[in-house]
Amino acid sequence: MKKLKRSARLVEMTQYLLFRPHTLIPLTTFAERYNSAKSSISEDLTIIKEVFEEEGLGELNTMAGAAGGVKFIPKLPKDVSLQFVQKVCEDLRQPDRILPGGYLYMSDILGQPAILNEVGKMFATIFADSGADCVMTVETKGIPLAYAVASYLNVPVIIVRRDNKVTEGSVVSINYVSGSNKRIQTMSLSRRALKEESKVLIIDDFMRAGGTIQGMKDLLKEFKASVSGVGVFVESGEVEEHLVEDFVSLAKLSGVDSKTKQVIVEPGNYFSNKS
After folding, report:
1. Are 160 and 129 in contact (CB under 8 A)?
2. Which of 117, 133, 171, 220 has the smallest set of CB atoms within 10 Å of its CB?
C-alpha cells in the first residue's frame, strides 16, 4: 500500500479497527500496510485510543510482547444505552401496537438497522468478557439481533431450528416444554453447526417464561457446550416465575391492557444491576 499522509492514515486505521472488533492486530500489520515506522504507528494508535474513549466508541487495548498488538473492544456507555432504551420503550408504549389477545407488535423495532446496530452493541458491551465462541438464537425473529451482536463480538451465529431441514445433514433434536403454554415442542441443531465444548452466548428478541431459552441450554448439553451468557431484548414481567434465572434484559414488558390501551414497558434488569 502506498504511503499515506498522517491524516489519511488515521482515518484508514480507524476504519480497519472498527471492522475487526475483538481481533488482535500486530503493529507490524499496520507498519507494512502503510509503509511506516512502528513508532509512528504507535503514536497514531494513541490518538485513536483517546478518541474512541472520549466518544464512547469502545476501548483500544494494547498487548505487549512479540505476539502483541492492539485489539478494539466495542463498548457503549451505560448512560447512553439507557437513553436509547428509554426511547425504544416510549415507542413500544404506543396504543396502536396492541394486538388482539393482549399481544404487542414489536417486529418493526428490530427491523430498523439503526436500532439493531445499537442493541447489538449493547449486548456486545455486556458480554464483552464472556469468552463466547459464538452467538446462538432460535429461528426466526431473533436472527437479525443475533447477527448484530455477533458482528460486534466478531464470532459466528448458530441458528437453532424448530424443524429438521434436509440441508442441515445429521442433527441433534430435543423436546422441550414451552414455558408460556406448557406445550411440548421440538428444536434441533445440525451436528456440524457447533463444535463440542464451545462457549455459547444465547440471544433472543423476547422471553416470556423462558421455555425456549431453557430448551437451547438443554440442547447445548448434547454438544458438551457451556452457556457464557443469556441476553434478551424484551422480557415479560407478566409471568410469576421465569424458567431461566440468569439473564440480562434491555426492556421489560409488564402489561398490555387492551381496554385502556395502556402498555407498561420499562428498561430491563441490565439498568437495575450495579456495574
Report:
1. no
2. 117
Tell me how far apart the alpha carbons of residues 156 and 256 are, in angstroms, rounded to a whole number.
36
Q: Which stretches of the chain are assigned E, i.e. beta strand?
A: 58-63, 69-74, 98-99, 103-104, 134-138, 157-160, 171-177, 184-190, 199-207, 226-236, 248-257, 262-267
Whole-model pTM above 0.90?
A: yes
**Distance, CA of 224 to CA of 218 (rounded, Å):** 10
Q: What's phi and psi for 72, nearest 5 deg?
A: -90, 125
Name the residue type at position 216: M
β pairing state of 134-138 and 157-160: parallel
What SS3 state is found at 122?
Answer: helix
Q: Calculate ∠ Cα 246-251-254, nearest 5°.
A: 95
Strand pairing category for 199-207 and 134-138: parallel
Of 127, 109, 134, nearest to 199 by C-alpha is: 134
Cα angle, residue 183 at apex, residues 181 and 184 outer, rounded to 5°: 155
Q: Which helix (H) or strand (E) holds 241?
A: none
pLDDT in tens, 218-264: 999 999 999 999 999 999 988 777 889 899 999 999 999 888 999 99
- H or E segment to which residue 114 belongs: helix 113-126
Cβ atoms within 10 A of the Cβ of 96, count?
A: 7
- Which residue carries 423495532 as its cell? 109
Residues 111/139, Cβ–Cβ less than 8 Å: no
Alpha helices of 177-254 — where are they, by DSSP H? 211-221
